[in-house]
Amino acid sequence: MTGQPADILTIDGLSKSFSISGGLFSRPLELHALTDISFSVRQGETLGIVGESGCGKSTLGRCILQLLAPDEGRVLWLGEDITRLPAEAMRRRRRDLQIIFQDPLASLNPRLTVGEIVADPLRTLMPELNEAERRRRVLAMMEAVGLLPEMINRYPHEFSGGQAQRIGIARALITEPKLIVCDEPVSALDVSIQAQILNLLADLKDKFGLTLIFISHNLSVVRHVSDRILVLYLGRIVELADGDALYGDPKHPYTQALLTAVPIPDPKRARARSIDALVGEIPSPIFPPSGCAFRTRCRYAVALCAEQRPPLETVEGGRLVACHRWREIEREAAAG
Amino acid sequence: MAAVLTVDDLDVTFALHNSEVQAVSDLSFTLHEGETLAVVGESGSGKSQAFLAIMGLLARNGRARGRAMLGDVDLIGMPADQLDTYRGRDIAMIFQDPMTSLNPSLKVRTQLAEVLVRHQGYDREQAVRAAVEMLERVGMPEPAKRANAYPHEMSGGMRQRVMIAMALLCRPKILIADEPTTALDVTVQAQMLDLFKTLTDDFGTALVMITHDLGVVAGLADNMMVMYAGRAVETGSVDQLFYDPRHPYTLGLLHSTPHVAVRARRLDPIQGLPPSLERLPPGCAFNPRCAFRFDKCLAERPPLEPAGEGRARACWYQGRLAYEAVA
To answer: Which pTM does this prediction carry?
Structure first.
């Protein structure tokens, strides 16, 4: 990437909670899915969002697209706050903002043919197109995603997972969107098919000049596709950096722990590596720890980490880190 | 090393409405004492069905033929009441989703203790004590307290620890783990893989790790068997297959797997889709997706044959597999 492209999307102070029943006689509890999330997405990049279950990555994708209404904060699409747009105005923006889901078969209407599924967004979002033009665009898009024209009258259950995901991709791309949120798009697929879909997404991104937000729990996949990577833990940003910088030199103790936990498909390296597994499991987002959410599993945690939430600092290279002690930790590591 | 399980010509078929589908064909392999064997394949490769057959756990329309010798007893075709003497005691199996194997209405300690009462003749008190000790061995935090919990009160990682504890209570010779870490978060997965390594070392248990994830295989297994469309297509040590794959499918899998430590590059996926078991192509089942196929592959199925240094493969192609080295 030459120069720094403009920001196409900005998330500013976004928070989202869900209220869940605490039992028959208890007050409802608040599940803090996202807390004070701020970052920007650049035109033409792939921004990876990684984290473990409950980190809020899927909720974040849905809040960006206004499929869920955030409680606080703004989502600026091309400079315009889309969180409080009237329904009709938001509907027009949906042409630009699309999503691909994890489970391709579950996200396709089983009673519609492939042609109808792919044409559906055109019907609702671009009603000015006539039938012939719709069909022309559907066929062109099917070809672009590697589906044969004769598949147009078939139903989703006739397809394997990989082909069904191609249908989901065609549906997302048919309105010529500028940004696509890919929510675990290859997690349900076999390895050999996963690679085909990842390559397809890369090709389509180039062909249509897309910006992608790629959400996944799989760090190897995210590393493979992303220019920059955002790491979430329990609904908060812990680190955001360029892919190479993040994987080569992670600053946050959680990012470091995540990376050492990823299995490597290379026996000699895997055996040589000391797996310094993180202790414990992710705390409940209903009762998140005080201060830094990661402190209960962090080997570097001190009293301060329980008292104050670490601010999200901007450091060199535009990297964001939220840790009270990252500089000290780095110095200690350098000193051996 | 002594063999603990010898499987010979195992076939698994399922009766459908008016046809039959063969999920596993001619599978033969030997598992040695203390060995960790990874069984690798994608959906429909038969990797799970082969071991469900060995455990006598096939669905009702499934049928197994062949032999699976545990010492001098053949597990295939053995009636369920007789199998129960061996299952849990000599050979145990755990699954991806522990909730499907745990009884939701019984406390964890009751379920664990039952295994020891049944197989080892412990009295209840001894059995509970041993169960809590085993929970501690598998890294359960506050084991005495957790033993009193019900499965639904635990996280996925903790439930999987309970399953491992249960499987190891009788110190079985063989532990079969079917995608045991697939549903877990990566940091918990790392804890589990570490645990498998320690426990198999400590107890001398032979481990069969059924997985689609080559990353899991690389750090844990000694040997591996790659399956495609119900057959073993390549077997050998983990180093042999990762650094010098001799079957185009093994090579394709390696090239399809993104590597966290390597800078983003384009993947070389295997073209096409896995075949339907009901309509396998003639010749080699992999031929429609194979970059190295020639006329013989379309006509005749290659048998799994020794390829030197203890490895074996099922492929007619004699040349060097020409993608560049993977790792």
So the answer is: 0.90
